[in-house]
Amino acid sequence: MLGRLTIRARITIGSVLVAAVIFAIAMMAAHAQVVSILLAADATLARADLDSYALEVVANPSGLVDDSGKGLLVSIRDPSGQVKLDTLPRHIHRVVEHRDGRNETFSSGEDGTAFVVVGRLVKTTTGEWSLWAARSTASSLLAMRSLDIAFVLGGIVLLVAFGFASWLLASAALRPVRRMRQKAESLGMDPTSVLPVARAKDELSELAMTLNAFLGRVRASSAREKQVVSDAAHELRTPLSALKTQLELAHDDFDDAAALAAQVIAAERSVARLSSLATNLLELSRLDAQAVPVRPCSADDLVSELMGCIDRARLIGLANDAEVGFTVSLVSPVDDRARFAISGENFARLADNLLANSVAVISPGGSVDADLTEEPGKIVLRVTDSGPGMDETFLPHAFDRFSRADNSRTASTGGSGLGLALVRAITLAANGTVQVQNTGGGLVATVSIPKM
Fold it and tell me: I need a labelling partner for 409 at 20 to 30 A (CA). Which of 6, 52, 153, 278 fits?
């Protein structure tokens, strides 16, 4: 039922209910306290009624007790048990007639009337006198009833006022939420707008800042996706256009077997480029979606994968008619039980891209050095080539998707600019780090993979 109400209504109802409980407890405590005070006052008056009689029996222990028309409710009994004066109601007389007037106080009631009864024992030369006095509590009860009515009416007025104040305060507190909702309705029309942040450093301000940060990340992600789609379309257009042209030329060379074979070989290269681009895009999307499960590997497994990558890189060098010298430096694992947060397949893909990037750009007779070292808490792969390096201004963008430096590292290869982006994505998925830097005569790429 409450779930269908607005937050403001729920806050108001909850506040009123809590206040009602507090008021009820406070009124019951006040009622008990006032009753105690009124009973104590009646008892004090009853004791005062006995003072004059106590003085009289002390002064004249053998004489008669004079009522003198005081109209008080008392009972006086001499040491022999003879009642000298008794104006108590009958039901109270039955209670005290066989009791000594000890210093005590009690309540007694019958037929809807209530009395406070006090007793006193007075010592004289003739013995101990028992004195009793009673006071009706009717006036106190009447005053208490009036006070209870005042408590109830006052509590109702306070609850109404408290509920109204809670409604106003809840409205004021939720006003920033209303502004945020109104602003959120226009976010789609203005790509630069954000949710308003109140000046007060409260929970709503923190919520607005958190939502604005989330909105910024969503917009940045959307912008990256649009850019990736645009770049992918541009990258696909070039090999597709080349493939279309090559097929058209092949139609014209049906009568020339050698020319037709050349066009088919060129078309195969375009298809291979398209396949590589599509594969890299698919792998990047899988890594972005964190859909690739982590299957940790030992250092020995990573060494085996790296040796297979070296063999494939040699074949790429031979296919490009480039005599590339490979140097492999491996350090035996310190801890055979250590496992690293990367699968063998992903490590092979990472190393393949780094080695292929180096092989594709070095000059004939160049060299590539692959160094796999186990360090405290991680394993480090370093791939160093003999050059050329990258422009220093391009290094911060080397891992961006579809980024290519305007120098000899890519001018001759026509790469898609996804290799290093894929390396970074694989490394980040393993909670590792990757960086590239010039060595003066070449480039070194360093990848660190932590232990699990």
Answer: 278
Checking if the pLDDT of 80 tops 50, the result is yes
Q: What local confidence, expressed as pLDDT, does residue 236 receive?
A: 63
As a CATH number, domain 188-291 is: 1.10.287.130
Q: What is the mean pLDDT of the chain?
A: 78
CATH homologous superfamily of 299-450:
Histidine kinase-like ATPase, C-terminal domain (3.30.565.10)
Per CATH, is 2-154 categorized as 3.40.50? no
pLDDT at 268 over 80: no
Q: Angle CA(388)–CA(389)–CA(391) in degrees, nearest 5?
A: 125
Query: Where along the chain do its domains lie?
Result: 2-154, 188-291, 299-450
pLDDT band at 67 (very low <50, low <70, confident <90, very high): low
